[in-house]
Every structure is written in structure tokens, then in C-alpha cells.
Amino acid sequence: MAKPVVVSDWPDLRHCFPRGFIHVNNTPEAIADGIQKMLNEREELGTEIIAMRSEILARRKPVFEEFVSLLGETVPINLHTMPAQQSTRPLQQREKKKI
Q1: 28-40 and 42-71 are packed helices; what angle lies between their axes, rounded to 10 degrees?
Q2: Nearest CA-CA partner of 70 in 62, 59, 78
């Protein structure tokens, strides 16, 4: 999903989301203007989000692959999804079984 978002104009958010997001001050007028801008530019912003996501994934993939190799496991590389949990039982039940 490449949906544009209006977010607060904070340095950390600008760093994490440099493209495809509308950064606004926390005032009613700025938020309203940001929403209008987002609606007017939604297609362009969506394209920017897709491009930014691809860049981030390409940058993170080598680090993720190195992390997986350090674990000594063969894990399929898919940064879009998390592997399913091995057990849905509460941790306490699993711990009791080990004892």
C-alpha cells in the first residue's frame, strides 16, 4: 500500500520519511492544508512512497542477510512479512514444558 500520509514536521520523521509524506506543523490550519495537499498530490506521493520503500529495502537487505547468516539459520529473505510464530501457546506453558 502506497498511501500518502500527513505527519508532524519533526526532524526524526523527516529523516525516516523523506519522500511521499506531507510534513506539517501541529496546528489545525497546517493540518488542513497538509490534507488538501495530500489529496491534490496523492498519485505523485504514492509513486514517491513506492520508490522510497524500494530504496530502503535494497539498503537493508545486505544487513538483514548478514544478520540471518550470523544466526546460522537458513531463513527465506522477505522483508515485507514476518515469519509465523512456531507456537501460539503462552510463554508460561512453553517454559513449564521445558522443566
Answers
A1: 90
A2: 62
CA–CA distance, 93 with 72 (Å, rounded to integer):
27
| DSSP code, position 84 | P
Sheet strands (E) in the chain: 5-8, 21-24
Nearest to 3 by CA among 48, 34, 37: 48
Question: How far apart are alpha carbons 77 and 85 in whole angstroms?
Answer: 16
Residues 17, 36: Cα–Cα separation, whole Å: 19
Task: Fill in the amino acid letter for 92.
Answer: Q
**Domain locations along the chain:** 5-98
Q: What is the pTM of this model?
A: 0.59
25 grid coordinates:
506543523
For the chain (99 residues), the mean pLDDT of every run of 10, in chain order, is 89 91 96 96 93 90 88 62 48 50
3-state secondary structure of 90: coil
